[in-house]
Amino acid sequence: MRKRIHQVVVLGAGVMGSRIACHLANAGLQVLLLDMVPPALNEKEKQQGLTEENPAFRNRIVNDALQAAVKSKPSPIFHNSVLQRIRTGNFEDDLHRIATCDWIIEAVVEQLLIKQSLFEKVEQHRKPGTYISTNTSGIPIHLLAEGRSPDFRRHFCGTHFFNPPRYLPLLEIIPGPETLPEVVDTLSQLGDRVLGKTTVICKDTPAFIANRIGVYSMMLVFRLMERQGWKIEEIDALTGPLIGHPKSATFRTADVVGIDTMVHVARGLYENCTQDEQRDLFQIPAFLQQMVNTQRLGDKTGEGFYKKIKSTDGQSEIRVLRLDTQQYEPRQKFSSPAIEQARNISDLGERLRFLHGLKDRVGEFFRHFTYALLAYVSHRIPEIADELYKVDDAMRAGFGWEMGPFEIWEALGVAETTEQMEKAGYAPAHWVKEMLQKGNTTFYLREADRVSCYDPQQKEYRPVPGSHEIIVLRNYSQQKIWENAGTTLYHVGDGVLNLAIHTKMNTIGSEVIQGIQKAIEFAEANYEGLVIGQESPNFSAGANVALILTLALEQEWDELSMAVQAFQQTSLRIRYARVPVVVAARGLTLGGGCEFCLHADAVQAHSETYMGLVEVGVGLIPAGGGSKEMTQRASEAYHQGEIDLPKLQERFLTIAMAKVSTSAQEAFDLQLLRPGYDRVTMNANRLLADAKQRVLEMARSGYVPPSPPRIKVLGREALGLFLTGIYAMQEARYISEHDAKVAQKLAYVMSGGDLSEATEVNESYLLDLEREAFLSLCGEPKTLERLQSVLKQGRPVRN
Asked: What integer pLDDT is reported at residue 275 of this predicted model?
């Protein structure tokens, strides 16, 4: 029976503890954060006349730590309001308060004796049945539980959050030898559904799963670099997004994590994994030890493998360490025709096959790296996990790999790669060859409604728990309804269609416009409704800037007008479809992507949704219905029909300042998401399934599309206010002359034009105004400069 968790105590307010507390509060839990009492009054406290009995002194460590966490970048909180759910205190005065809590999380320094001492004190106040866990990254769970009562041991386990807890979705749960199954089940489900985590149940082995494999892969890269003569920036070019790993690749990741931390974990693995056939790989290379000795520990000391240098003109430059000289030098760009060709291959599996087939030193590096890694993970089964999918889940969620090791193996071809590994001197575990001899050539069997994974112990495929509860679009390949170059339409069961966008950055051009129109057409004919969304990290970066720039430069005004009109009509098609349309938003949801959300019946947004109408930044205004829609929402907010300029001004500023939410919760503040209509999903893996359920919920309650509204626009009263504010901003030099021109165009649209009094208009009237403003701005040289800058540099020039 699962326990309900409402109140949580976090013991230790260091980097991890404070950020765990913040994320628990993000998820709506009540949190008590405790830490030590300071050893003595500092000078500032003495000057303030504080005594050692004053709570401000006694809670200084915990309060300072929490404030430091909140001020850190990226922010650990969704919204400032979540801090209301965090209370603070100290171990001496407040430890008794744990008696009212449901779950205690220990997150103090990684030393066994200190943790055991704290647990002894905790047991004096903890009520029987309260869950208790440790956030250790490597200390054996069974050692931490030694000396504790039977009830403590039965309700104790490891819960290893990855840093930063808000952004890295992995939560490793490590049962002790006596941990009750219901404790593991409750925390696993809480992590999944409430905290938004990929929860992986691990064995109590050194470094558990993700760090065991992740640190091995980094140490392997170090060895290959030394053996094959690579430079640091060359390795990072090869081990980042090119192979489906994060941009931080290998050495930048080490700087972020901390060189000393990585050395500590690697040394622990060498000392504790005495039966590991690759144990010697965990010995610390001389260059790494030298960096620790000289305190080049990465970001925490300001220099590691990379260092930010300020030049005499005040500009910053990133330099890279040369291991032979221990000097920092300018980075050298590394590429080749083959690498550039690989970057143009969108499918990761196909890209990996291409890279492994190269006959140059790049191909040699990838083959040795991959063969060694795959052989290693095969030998960790069943040592660190009985199930293969746990290894893949841990590496995707903890290290940000697009594919886990067994998924990579499968993408390269299990049988062919195994044969090549053996020829190169890398021996996989016996169970792999046994699996192949039985005629099983894949690790996974993927069906529309579930995934099965090969079980080496049972020698058969077994369903992956929970896989039937989520939607993985590639499993629906047999249920494709329609596709074009930029979209694919799937039937995802129960009469619901899902349109996935797969252009570069999911930008919106003619193929996406066609895809949405076709998807709604299919849905209205034979289905219950439509989800627009996909599993990629970003929903959409907005309209296709290259297309807009090309048409504007060539002065194809009629064609550009038709393109804008098609965009507007697609937004209206979403709004007035005869079946419910739900957008599954996540990550970047900008410009046109945001406009589609504004017109959907509902948005099912992942908690990490960065939404905004950002067109002003490139010298344009929202013209896919966004300016119209924000004006309409202001009109709907007017109290009992009375004119309320602040309601319109709020929405005007949201667009004029190109505000982007830093979370889904903040998108509600910006009126981009609507309470009562739009909802938030914490776990990105569940986003499409939740959006599908939202469609079914509306369809089964007798969905009727909305009627076209009458929109109250305020004319000159609003226009005068906006123009006065714009003039003041320009005079104060907060905005440029061109910024002012763009804002004036937006003001004209959202005021409804130069009308003498407040008037009710229809949508077409405002759509015409925003289209005309958009086209006129496309003819401005400074707008064209901004568009060109976005394409060349990734950001608009300020002009």
From this structure: 94
